[in-house]
Specification:
Radius of gyration: 17 Å
Strand order of the largest sheet: 3-2-1-4-5-6
Number of strands: 6
Distance between the termini: 31 Å
Oligomer: single chain
Order of helices and strands: HEHHHHHEHEHEHEEH
Largest sheet: 6 strands, parallel
Strand content: 5-15%
Number of helices: 10
Structural class: alpha/beta
Shape: globular
CATH architecture of the largest domain: 3-Layer(aba) Sandwich
CATH superfamily of the largest domain: HAD superfamily/HAD-like
Helix content: 40-55%
C-alpha cells in the first residue's frame, strides 16, 4: 500500500465511540467478510462472463465488456440480464456460484470479534443465500449471524437501490440510527449513511489486483463514508475497545 493510500485510510477517522448504542451490525459478504486476496469472487466473475458469452452468443471479450457495463449500470450483472435479456435468475445464480470455496480460509479472530458485538448481526449481500452460507461456513463465522438478507429476499433488486435497503429494514426491524454497515463498495454506503447508519468502507490490500474496475475503487473520501479500514477484524476489535471502555 502506498503512503497516499495509507493516508486515505485515515481520511475519515472519527471517534469510535460513535458506535456506542449500535444494535445491528450489517455486513456485505464478498470482498468484505473475506479479503479479495482469497480469490473467491474472481471465480464468480469468470463464471458470469462465461454465462453471458454462452447465453448471448458473444465472444469472451464482448461478454466481459457487457458484464461490467451491466454491473456498473444496474448494481448487479443479473439485474441487467433480467431487464435487457429476460434471463431466468435462479439458473444464473446457481451457475455463477458453482465455485471452489476452499481458497477461503477460516478466520476465528473475525468470528470472535463478531460474536462480541452487542446486538444483532446480518449479512446483506447482492449474492444469494446458499453462496453466503457456504462462504460464512468456510470462514467459521456462520453461527454468529442472526440472518442473511440476499438478492432473492430483496426481490432481485440489488444494492445500491433505496428500495432494497428499505426492504431490508422492513424485514429485519433494524433501526438505521442504531445500525452500522460494512461494505467494500463506497456507492453501496450512500443510502445507509443517508438513513442514519454508521458507514465503514473496506479497502484491503490487493483490491486492485483482483478483477476490480476503477469506479469500484472510488469514493473512499466521500462524505457518506464515515470510516475506512483495510483490516475488518482489527477495526471491530478497536470498536469494541472504544464502546466497552
Amino acid at each position: 500500500m502506498t503512503p497516499d493510500e495509507r493516508e486515505g485510510l485515515q481520511a475519515h477517522e472519527q471517534d469510535l465511540r460513535v458506535f456506542t448504542g449500535v444494535e445491528a451490525w450489517v455486513f456485505d459478504l464478498d470482498n468484505t467478510l473475506y479479503p479479495p486476496s482469497s480469490d473467491l469472487f474472481s471465480q464468480i466473475d469468470v463464471r458470469i462472463s462465461d454465462y453471458i458469452a454462452r447465453h448471448l452468443g458473444l465472444s469472451a471479450e464482448d461478454a466481459r465488456l457487457k458484464q461490467k457495463a451491466f454491473y456498473r449500470d444496474y448494481g448487479t450483472t443479473l439485474r441487467g440480464l433480467m431487464i435487457e435479456h429476460d434471463i431466468e435468475p435462479d439458473a444464473f445464480l446457481e451457475y455463477v456460484h458453482d465455485i471452489d470455496y476452499s481458497p477461503v480460509a477460516p478466520n476465528p479472530a473475525l468470528g470472535r470479534a463478531i460474536a462480541r458485538l452487542p446486538g444483532r448481526k446480518y449479512i446483506f449481500t447482492n449474492g444469494d443465500r446458499p453462496h453466503a452460507e457456504r462462504t460464512a461456513a468456510r470462514l467459521g463465522i456462520a453461527e454468529h449471524f442472526d440472518d442473511i438478507f440476499d438478492i432473492v429476499a430483496a426481490g432481485l433488486l440489488p444494492k445500491p437501490n433505496l428500495e432494497t435497503y428499505n426492504l431490508f429494514i422492513e424485514k429485519t426491524g433494524v433501526s438505521p440510527v442504531r445500525a452500522a454497515m460494512f461494505e467494500d463498495l463506497s456507492r453501496n454506503l450512500a443510502v445507509p449513511h443517508g438513513l442514519g447508519m454508521r458507514s465503514v468502507l473496506l479497502v484491503p490490500e490487493g483490491t486492485r489486483a483482483v478483477f476490480r474496475e476503477e469506479w469500484e475503487l472510488e469514493g473512499r473520501n466521500a462524505p457518506h463514508v464515515d470510516f475506512v479500514t483495510d483490516d475488518l477484524t482489527g477495526f471491530l476489535n478497536a470498536v469494541l475497545g472504544a464502546i466497552n471502555a
